[in-house]
Amino acid sequence: MFRSQFPKIFFLLCLxxxxxxxxxxxxxxxxxxxxxxxxxxxxxxxxxxxxxLLFDNSDLMMHNFVLLQxxxxxxIVEAANALGAKGPELxxxxxSDKVLASTPxxxxxxxxxxxxxxxxxxxxxxxxxxxxxxxxxxxxxxHVTKEKPKDxxxxxxxxxxxxxxxxxxxxxxxxxxxxxxPCVACIGVAPTGEVFAGVDQIGSLGKGAGKGRIVRLIDxxxxxxxxxxxxxxxxxxPRGIVPIGDKLFVLHTQWGSESxxxx
Length: 263
Known about the structure:
Blueprint (H helix, E strand, L loop, with lengths): L1 H20 L3 E9 L3 E3 L2 E4 L4 E8 L8 E3 L4 H9 L17 E4 L7 E8 L5 E6 L10 E6 L5 H11 L23 E6 L5 E6 L11 E7 L9 E7 L3 E7 L2 E6 L1 E2 L5 E2 L1
Parallel strand pairs: 1-4, 3-9
Antiparallel strand pairs: 1-2, 4-7, 5-6, 5-8, 8-9, 10-11, 11-12, 12-13, 14-15, 16-17
């Protein structure tokens, strides 16, 4: 009698444990915009909630995601900058009880997933990229509240709006997004219709050489929007582009001695 009932009892116990182990997980997505910006800059989750965050680094630089206690962003940013040679092995995340969750450093065009439980206490919890120099401008807020802030949705819509004023007889079309041509300093159009954009990210990526390039864009169907592009040249500080015949003349500065610019 005992032997015949044991498998059923065991099965019921397993079923009960497995059902209890299923925890509802809220999934959030976070991306990157050129110029050291998270997208979106505001997220929401319930207190004490299990969260799975997908971090999609679509940028050309390395980034990470670090969730912090309120009011600790600059302290952690400075601590990350002070890691020195230990920074890479720690993924630029300093050891601190104020760090609530983090991803490793995510390479350009790669993704990472981090799972964490939100604090029980309601509040505004900052998230930041602690890669050296990024945390001063690249940060956002995770709203941990029972009710979603009413202005959260409207803020996201406002962030997506881009207003351009043109005369009524003209039409404004986005030829190339800033994911392809960020920080455009100059452009040149060849007789063949090719558009050459001089990109200079020396401000957003820090100081030093290797942060400029010429992007060649082609509008194959003449609808005012580029269909393909290539990196035509890597060149510092492009400030003028003139296509003449089969040549492209570029006005730019050069790196001289002691990391100074020369004309």
